[in-house]
Design a protein that fits this description.
Number of helices of chain A: 20
Strand content of chain B: under 5%
Shape of chain B: globular
Structural class of chain A: mainly alpha
Radius of gyration of chain B: 21 Å
Oligomer: heterodimer
Order of helices and strands of chain A: HHEEHHHHHHHHHHHHHHHHHH
């Protein structure tokens, strides 16, 4: 096995090994655990960077192992997988730093960081999975490794949220399994391949394939929180802030969305899925979810719950982009996979900072927080404007691409949806910004101080860096290796046979 | 050039950065006025159109300057410079940090949108100006300011959405992200009417188009005085520039819509003045005067659409008019915050200096207004334009000049009721005095005559021209005689009339 073909496996193993070692470390070895966590995160980032450069040059990293006759375990790095792996690797580093600061002095950190690393490993597996079977394996592993994180605090509310999460995602997993198995009995093992597998398929099978598509998407829709399967997400908000950040920005919802991308592009093939007529209903559902999530977000008084419904809305942007038939729509959807992650993680980091520093959970307690915590509030402001799609931030690039993609594919109805969603986003984010910057502080009863900085420095740097990234991804959208340029690369490979 | 254009856009952003870095208030006051200097140098050193391509930026950006943009940039940078001087002394310590940060951001947006050649940059700077401008409007956080801010923000966001949809449709049609390619795309598009309407309405909110203007008389007066000046003088021109850049000026096919725009402009011009006459507060009167003046510019835009063959003549006049109005209106706004000398000749000199930019707006000979109005008359010849409504334009312009004169007199009366005696700090005096000076005198040395035909259009050719400009002023003066008398024997400074 050469170094090159081992790269996907190594990337996966860094987190897996870190997880095992952390589980075995005694609770009080905090320094060593932090060092281990950060080293693993940095090494993984380096490995992903090597793969990104390689894939750009056209190299192919893959490794496969036959488990049973006809069932293969494949890890493979293509343009799409390194996109998701890159997002995970970057945001994981930030989340690790944040989590270390957030959980300082809290109990059960060994367990937390163990599952945390396991969760990274699963996400990497999902990104690098080379066929549906491998994808499913890591998809389920993600469910199981995030459950302990959701219930980490052990309160009754947390356990209830965890149970709801488990019920939703395991059911979704079973449905997905059904779809994968059905597809396997018909076609055998299907590796993910650009432009899909079914162009030459017997037209008699079209009905069956449409049904299987429905099953697969239903299974994936749970994690990507598409209406009406989004119920677990706002409930899971009881989890600690880094976990929420992770569930929302990178791991869970993105695993679902990424799965949908894989099924549409690399199993069915975008052209075939379009011809099959399954894209348009999915597009309507995504559009509905976009508006539904925003409308629900309006009436939330809890900051994290409002952000949660915002996620429901924003993840469906990705799905909407996928269903817009045409390369520009694809670019819009794929680029949002990254952009939404960066922006949403910023918002959750900030929400965590307000909670940890000022004891604030409700939106009406945020009055004047901008003066007390200016840097956190600047980060939050950038994240919120990004979500609204205000230029020059990352969200604008997404919105522009989705809008152009919709026009290119003749789906004019998408424009009013985008406009309405922007207006709703403004309606639920701008009042928060007003409170932060213009309202008079009423004082905070549980305020804590950390020396000169507005909050613990490990809590402050991650949102500042991701907020800076939100700006840079928009301003330098057309630079080489930007998410936009990379999405264009992926789209070029998906459409040109 | 490319260093200057970067400086023009980036230097204003230095101020928010300094705020974040906790620069003391004194430092902020020192830095605040000088942010528009690179933009001013850029505008003054302009010779011929040029562009800077920035392929990595946004969706592939290009920035640059051309004839119209130069005049816009000149007006904006001069106005922001003088208003900045004024603001550096006017804004109290409480809230200075936030004000400075928002000032820099709004300024960057205002200058950047003028310099943008591609629509992503344009929309970016436009939005930056809008959102940061909200903070300037509600700076005092009175109940009134908050309400005005809410109306401003809601209308602005709805406008932005119309702009975004319009730009998306237009650029899809054009297959390009360059602003210059949009007018033809709008003109040639199957759904061109929709695109036209979206862009008209979207930018119309900012430009104070009648029925989309409601935010303007609320927001302009409640902002701190230097912010009112830039809002009314420079920022609303962002909407005007948007129209000029993306609507099909000079392209056939929209005679009807062009004429509708002419009617809307006339409505804004006269209606704005009429409503302004009913107001009590000097800044509100000025805000309505801005609606009225923007109405004239709307009328010019409409004419350039309805009479495409004349557009190449009309467009420079729009820019010239915007320059003249921006400087004069800025000077009038800044005068509102002045402290007045007790009595005697300094006081009369003060009235004279406050009044002149106002009379310039009405077209007093030998002022910038005379140049702008003469140029306007020159391009709005009914027989040249040739569309149905064109023959009404001369009468309309005379009526407009009369209405403006009345409005300015109303402003002076209201101002007199609110003034307080005292001394002005040097920066405030320099800001107001400088802008007044520039709007009255420097205007003639500014390099606008290089814009082709303007030079000949703007000079008073004969006594007849001068009379054409003067009689509406005199007529309005006669109508307002009772008022003028009241002005002379009016209440003592500082007291309010019920």
């Amino acid at each position: 096995m050469s170094f090159a073909s081992a790269l996907p496996l190594l990337t996966l193993m860094t987190s897996l090994v870190a997880a095992l070692v952390i589980f075995m470390l005694p609770e009080q070895r905090q320094g060593l655990r932090t060092l281990l966590n950060l080293t693993a995160a940095v090494v993984k980032l380096g490995l992903v960077a090597i793969m990104v450069a390689g894939v750009f040059r056209g190299e192919d990293y893959s490794i496969s192992y036959t488990l049973l006759p006809g069932v293969e375990f494949i890890l493979r790095a293509d343009a799409l997988s390194v996109m998701f792996a890159g997002l995970s690797a970057v945001l994981w580093l930030f989340t690790t730093i944040y989590a270390v600061g957030y959980l300082e002095g809290a109990p059960n950190r060994s367990r937390f960081f163990g599952f945390f690393s396991l969760c990274v490993a699963s996400t990497m597996g999902i990104a690098l999975a080379g066929n549906l079977f491998t994808f499913l394996l890591f998809y389920e592993m993600l469910t199981l490794s995030t459950y302990p994180l959701v219930v980490h605090r052990g309160t009754r509310k947390a356990v209830r949220a965890g149970n709801s999460y488990l019920a939703y995602t395991l059911t979704g997993g079973v449905v997905l399994l059904l779809g994968v198995a059905w597809l396997h009995t018909l076609f055998g093992d299907l590796p993910f391949a650009a432009t899909g597998h079914f162009q030459q398929v017997d037209p008699a099978l079209h009905g069956t394939l449409a049904l299987i598509f429905l099953i697969l998407i239903t299974g994936l829709a749970v994690k990507s929180a598409i209406f009406p399967l989004h119920g677990w997400l706002p409930t899971a908000m009881v989890a600690p802030a880094p976990v929420s950040a992770l569930l929302h920005a990178v791991a869970v919802v993105k695993a679902g969305a990424f799965g949908i991308v894989r099924v549409v592009y690399d199993i069915y093939g975008i052209e075939f899925a379009y011809a099959l007529g399954v894209l348009e209903p999915l597009g309507w559902l995504a559009a509905f979810t976009i508006l539904y999530g925003s409308v629900r977000a309006l009436s939330q008084t809890d900051l994290k719950r409002r952000l949660a419904f915002s996620t429901v809305s924003q993840v469906s942007y990705i799905v909407l982009g996928v269903t817009l038939f045409g390369p520009i729509g694809t670019i819009g959807g794929l680029v949002h996979l990254l952009h939404q992650g960066v922006m949403k993680i910023t918002l959750f980091f900030c929400a965590g900072n307000y909670a940890e520093t000022l004891g604030v959970h409700r939106i009406d307690e945020l009055d004047g927080a901008g003066r007390r915590m200016p840097l956190t509030s600047i980060a939050f402001t950038l994240g919120a404007f990004g979500m609204m799609g205000a230029p020059p931030l990352a969200g604008f690039v997404t919105k522009w691409m989705l809008g152009s993609g919709a026009l290119a594919s003749g789906m004019l109805w998408v424009i009013p949806v985008l406009v309405a969603s922007t207006l709703l986003n403004a309606a639920y984010f701008l009042p928060i910004l007003y409170r932060l910057w213009f309202a008079t502080p009423k004082g905070w009863s549980q305020e804590r101080r950390w020396g000169r900085l507005e909050t613990h420095s490990w809590l402050l740097w991650p949102p500042l860096l991701t907020a800076a990234l939100t700006v840079l991804l928009g301003i330098l959208a057309s630079a080489p290796f930007s998410p936009l340029s990379w999405a264009e690369l992926v789209a070029a490979r998906e459409y040109l046979p | 050039m490319s260093a200057l254009i970067w400086g023009a856009v980036l230097l204003p952003l230095l101020l928010p950065l300094l705020v974040v870095l906790q620069l003391p208030a004194r430092g902020l006051r020192l830095v605040l006025p000088w942010l528009p200097v690179p933009a001013l140098v850029l505008a003054l050193s302009y010779e011929a159109p040029w562009a800077l391509h920035l392929p990595y930026l946004l969706l592939g950006a290009s920035w640059g300057l051309d004839d119209v943009r130069q005049l816009m940039l000149l007006a904006a940078s001069l106005l922001w410079l003088c208003a900045g001087l004024y603001a550096s002394a006017y804004i109290r310590a409480e809230g200075l940090r936030r004000y400075s940060a928002l000032w820099g951001l709004t300024l960057a947006g205002n200058l950047g949108l003028i310099l943008s050649l591609d629509l992503a940059s344009f929309y970016t700077f436009f939005a930056l100006m809008t959102f940061a401008g909200y903070g300037l409007v509600i700076h005092d956080r009175t109940k009134e300011a908050l309400w005005a801010g809410k109306v401003y923000l809601v209308m602005a966001i709805v406008g932005e959405m119309a702009v975004l949809s319009g730009l998306l449709l237009a650029s899809h049609q054009a297959g390009s992200l360059q602003l210059a390619s949009l007018p033809e795309a709008v003109a040639g598009a199957e759904n061109g009417l929709w695109i036209f309407a979206l862009l008209l309405v979207g930018f119309g909110v900012k430009a104070g188009l009648p029925l989309l203007h409601f935010w303007l008389p609320l927001a302009h007066p409640v902002a701190p005085t230097p912010a009112s000046a830039v809002l009314s003088g420079a920022m609303i021109k962002g909407g005007l520039l948007g129209w000029v850049l993306v609507l099909p000026l000079g392209l056939p096919g929209y005679t009807g819509l062009g004429q509708a725009l002419v009617v809307l402009g006339a409505l804004g011009s006269l209606g704005g003045a009429a409503l302004g006459l009913l107001q009590q507060r000097p800044k509100t009167v000025l805000a309505y005067s801005s609606i009225s003046q923007m109405g004239l510019m709307t009328l010019l835009v409409g004419s350039a659409i309805a009479a495409p063959h004349q557009a190449s003549l009309i467009v420079p006049v729009i820019a010239l008019y915007a320059l003249h109005h921006g400087l004069a209106k800025g000077a009038l706004f800044l005068a509102v915050g002045l402290k007045w000398p007790d009595s005697g000749w300094p006081r009369w000199l003060g009235w004279g200096l406050v009044m002149l930019p106002g009379l310039a707006l009405a077209g007093l000979p030998f002022t910038s207004g005379a140049a702008a109005k003469t140029a306007m008359k020159g391009v709005l010849q009914p027989d040249q334009l040739g569309f149905g409504l064109a023959h009404l334009l001369p009468a309309l312009m005379a009526a407009g000049a009369m209405a403006t004169t009345l409005l300015i007199l109303r402003y002076l009366v209201c101002l007199r009721d609110t003034i307080t005696t005292g001394y002005n700090t040097g920066a405030i005096l320099a800001g107001w005095g400088g802008l007044t000076f520039i709007s009255l005198l420097l205007f003639w040395w500014l390099p606008w005559p290089q814009v082709g035909e303007l030079a000949s259009l703007a000079r008073l050719g004969s006594l007849k021209d001068a009379w054409g400009l003067t009689w509406p002023l005199l007529a309005a003066g006669a109508v307002a005689w009772p008022w003028l008398r009241r002005l002379r024997s009016g209440p003592q400074p500082g007291s309010h009339t019920p």
